[in-house]
User: Fold these one by one.
Assistant:
Number 1:
Amino acid sequence: MTYNTPPKSARRLGLVILILAVLAIASIVVGFIIYSNSSSDSAPSSAPTSSTTAPSETPAEEPSTAPVPSASGTNTGYTVQEIESILSNLGVVTVVDNSGYERDAFGSSWIDVDNNGCDTRNDILIRDLIDVTIDTDGCRILAGTLIDSYTGETINFIRGQSTSSEVQIDHLVPLSRSWALGASSWDEETREAFANDPMNLFAVKGDANNNKSDQGFDTWTPAIYSCITEQKATGDSTKDAKAFCNTVDIYGGDYYDTFDCEYAARYVLISEKYELAVTTEDVANIESALNTCS
């Protein structure tokens, strides 16, 4: 049987076709491998990942915009920022001259200015004391308990000749000081209203009130009084204790300063209400006290 051999040209064409087929298959295989690798790289990982972003924290409120805290239970209704703004608009003097001051210029002591049947002293005692016992007249406080804003102490009040003075009513802005800072030009009605304004009055420990006397914010605050008390306990005279406490950072130690923020705020508000000036030293100490607000 005879077989015819394909011509050389046909054999060459067959070889070329074979080579091209092999190359095509190889390209397909390589492409599939590349595709598989890229798919596995881009697939999301099932393993948990930790976040490098720190959890966000609510920033603490700046003291200047915080409400004035109330240690006395009677809120001022102002923010620290508002108090600072009011302070910046008060008149400022460098000298306090209360010559010509007389207590009688502010009317009789403790009158019934609000016509509720009780004089101002008893009104303030009723407001500031707890667990009070009131006389049958509905006004006179016979006994009660004071949580003193100036010292933080608890004082049991009993009315009596030798005991009533343990709790006294303090004018936060003293009358004689107000005389020097604007009250000397007021009419009698305004001075009487100022002397009996509950905003300017607090029932306080008698010794603290006596120590304060007619001092302003420049030389007396509850924190300064706390410092004075501690210094006197070490043997200092009152004069030496005052000199020491007016030169140290009273808000950087262990002195009682819980009420100083509110004390400062009320001092400013009273001064604004009655258009009283303050001294440059008042301003410096008030600003320091307001920095303690939180």
Note: The two ends are 116 Å apart (CA to CA).
Number 2:
Amino acid sequence: MRGVIIAAVLLLCGVAHAQIESDDGMLQVRQENGGSVAVRTAGGTLNQDSSLQRRWYIINDANSPVRLERAGVFPRFDEREGVHYFLPIGTVSPKDAISAIEVRYLLFDIWGEHLRTFSVTKITDSSTHVDLQAGNRWPALETEASQLVSVFAFVTRVRATDGQTWTYNADRMLQRMQALGVNVGQKDLLADDPWMGNAEIFRWLRILARGDASAKGGGVQR
């Protein structure tokens, strides 16, 4: 876990300054550099010859009782487990005291196709800031980790300390993302099924994938 924290700090120090991409008066889109697409694996480093940088898009609603800052997702390979993980990063700054918040991350590959949608829920009393990273990670296939290029992050729900709840406008968010040229549909805004966060399932998928590759390789050799 310590290594993950150090990697995140290095990532924060190494990225370019953020810039405002666009603002339609209600939904402000902020684009930030999410780091190199190079990914470490058990067999070496993928994409090391590419100059591509990941792009993080943070979308804030003017009506939201909080503001999302420096939010995105980056892949990391756990050598001990032999599993790739997607790790979220980000900070929420409340305008008033809150007791819970939900943030969603939409991931897209090099071709602009939707990969995954993650949801982070934090239940905590805060009037200053909320860290979205601690304790959250999702297993990923190597192809997903190596092809991740764009991440869109936005707040979906906020519960104030007095019990009132704010919920984002899904239709407006969808239209805003589509206006940016993103190939996204209504169902893509929904978080992935819980089983997709199970590392054990991903281990079995990797084993099956390796077995299939070995079988194909054996056929070619004959």
Note: DSSP finds four helices and 13 strands in the chain.
